[in-house]
Amino acid sequence: MSRRDRSAGRNTIGALSDPAIISTLTGWLEASGARELEILTEDGGALKIVLSPGARSAHALETAPEVRATLPEGCAIKAPMAGFFRSTHPGGADASPLASEGRAVEAGAIVGFVEVGPLLLPVTAPEGFVVAEIHARTGDLVGYGDAILTTESTR
To answer: How far apart are CA 46 and CA 1, in angstroms?
Structure first.
């Protein structure tokens, strides 16, 4: 495993022997899937954590409660990449837009496409909502993260 030398910077993580720091770093190491971490500081401090195969800390055994993300009122659905927006599939027989203002959209539904060369990237609804406003029209050049449409809650 390659070693990253951080000795040029200051020790900004506090005392390396602090159990809370070691526990936090171990949790991050497990979450990343890495097996080893080594930290060297300018003042000569060092910390090396090596996880045994199959070992899991108490942090990993805790299960987080399932939380369902909901879109806030007026949330923007954004372009996944820069390209040209298409409100319909170019090969589709139906020329009507996939999303229009006031229309209810189901979770997972495709509300448009971003065309990048020969690729069509779908713009999908993360959950059900009503389309409040359309910001991009067919043929518009959109950038990564540009708002395609704004939502309003279906509840």
So the answer is: 17
The H or E element spanning position 21 is helix 19-32
Please report which helix (H) or strand (E) contains residue 25, including its range.
Answer: helix 19-32
Nearest to 104 by CA among 75, 128, 72, 130: 130
Among 83, 128, 124, 84, residue whose Cα is nearest residue 104? 128
If one counts every other C-beta atom within 10 angstroms of the C-beta of residue 81, the result is: 14
CB within 8 Å of 10: residues ≥ 6 apart = 41, 42
Neighbours of 113 (CB within 10 A): 23
User: pTM, whole model, 2 decimals?
Assistant: 0.52
| Distance (Å) of CA 38 to CA 14, 22, 43, 98 | 15, 12, 15, 51
27, 59 contact by CB (below 8 A): yes
What is the CATH code of the structural domain delimited by 76-152? Answer: 2.40.50.100
**pLDDT tens, 75-90?**
889 999 999 999 998 8
Domain ranges of the chain: 1-64, 76-152
